Amino acid sequence: MPFPLEICIDSLESARTAGPYLGPGDRFEVCASLLAGGGLTPSMGLVRALRADQPHIGLMVMVRPRPGSFVYTPAEVEVMLLDIQAAREAGAVGVVFGCLTVEGEVDTAVTTQLCKAAEGMEVTFHRAFDVTPSWQRACDTLASIPGITRILTSGHALTALEGAAELDALTRHLQSSSSSFPLTILPASGINAMSLAELRNRAPLLQEAHLSASGIIPPPDASAVAIGKVLGFGSGEEWRLDGDKLKAVRELVDREG
């Protein structure tokens, strides 16, 4: 049985490195600034470039206007709605977002509004799920909202392997659910060939995985970046996919199915 991989990227270079190891059932999660708190809404130029360069790979576009809190103002929601439309027009198969209330619960109203804007597309509720107080309550809330495809989660843990017990419980809970809107669980965080093999042993109902297979590379212009860092321009380091890490995961999945 196929086991799709979703690869988190923020550049065309990373997509090209990943391309040889991916097939039609796999996806890219497309973000900007993966070093800035987990990724933000990417430029639509990047999305269009990926669509042209990797036409066989589905694109899931992050819709997150800023780092930090997952509680969004009405003005931010306006921007997110426009970003969903832009992602659709740029050729994305789906979008990724996560919206919470000030109490840390799933924001049903905003999530429903965004899902309606994404009608006909896939929707992933991202790791905002991992800061909710109750996985079961959050899961049941999301299962009641039309349009959500999957939940991206580490099982409320630092890594998916550490959260394996919750991931297993989540998949079993959803399998036994009578919801009209079935969801799947997309495990994330710390996934590599070794951890994925163990994770699938501990949570055997998982059907796909999300990973970055990445490393951080130093800037080519270190002296200029050092000056820029003093001026508040950031460190200049880049997040880049490591082909060898992805190859190892691909070989594991192809071998074990």
TrEMBL record:
SUPFAM superfamilies in the cross-refs: CutC-like
One of the record's GO molecular function terms: copper ion binding
Stretch forming the signal peptide: none
Pfam families hit by this protein: CutC
Family recorded in the similarity comment: Belongs to the CutC family.
Protein name as it appears in the record: Copper homeostasis protein cutC homolog
Species this chain originates from: Apiotrichum porosum
Lineage: Eukaryota, Fungi, Dikarya, Basidiomycota, Agaricomycotina
